[in-house]
Amino acid sequence: MTAQARRARQKQATREGILRAALTIGEQEGWPAVTIRRIADAVEYTSPIIYQYFASKEAALQAVMAQGYERLRLALQAAGAEPDPERRLRELCRAYLRFAQDHPALYELMTGLGGVRLDGRARHQAASGVVRLTLETIEAWARHRGVSLPDSLAASETAWGVLHGMATLGLLEDIGFERARVLAENAVSALLRSWEAPMA
């Protein structure tokens, strides 16, 4: 390994350590508790070193958010291994709720519920892979069922809105994810029936 490659690897490892520290603080204490100084203390660097990687706390949290969306995309992609298009779509929906349940603090940061304000354009870009995968899954279902969707993107956004709503309900202690999963199954069934219904 060349010296340049070694430095690049060390720099990447430092960056990942910074993001892990930010994630840990956010999960344990809430996202408003994340500061550059707290991150620096956690990774045992000075604040100026952290600023060499991220210009602000918000920039670091946007990177954590982007990693979260990539983890979600991979989880949904794994659910997409189901060959039947309708079961694949339903598995994708279940995987979305599982992710929110397994990573509640990260999910809140990703979806703007974490108590910190992040750039909307950065969130849109980070979510693009998840949006594209959801769109492709819905379009595959529509082809399989012989359904003509007038606006596939709108259908995808509707499905995502339903899932986000159910995940948000799941995060509430008085409802929880067991109930949210039942509600999501019912909502997805109703959504599919509405797409299959002939246009008036």
The low-pLDDT segments are none
CATH level 1 class label of the largest domain: Mainly Alpha
Please give the CATH architecture of the largest domain: Orthogonal Bundle
What count of structural domains?
2
Report the average pLDDT across residues: 94
Instruction: Give helix % range.
Output: over 70%
Q: Could you give the order of the helices and strands?
A: HHHHHHHHH
Superfamily (CATH H level) name of the largest domain: Tetracycline Repressor, domain 2
C-alpha end-to-end distance: 66 Å
Category by helix and strand content: mainly alpha
CATH topology of the largest domain: Tetracycline Repressor, domain 2
Strand content: under 5%
Globally, the shape reads elongated
User: How would you characterize the largest beta sheet?
Assistant: none
How many runs of DSSP E, i.e. beta strands?
A: 0
Keywords:
Homeodomain-like_sf, 2 domains, Arc Repressor Mutant, subunit A, Tetracycline Repressor, domain 2, 200 residues, 9 helices, mainly alpha
Summarize the structure.
By secondary structure, the chain is mainly alpha-helical.
What is this structure's SSE topology?
Layout: H1 3-29, H2 36-43, H3 47-53, H4 57-79, H5 85-102, H6 104-110, H7 120-145, H8 152-170, H9 176-196
Helix pairs in contact: 1-2, 1-4, 2-3, 4-5, 4-6, 4-7, 5-6, 5-7, 5-8, 5-9, 7-8, 8-9
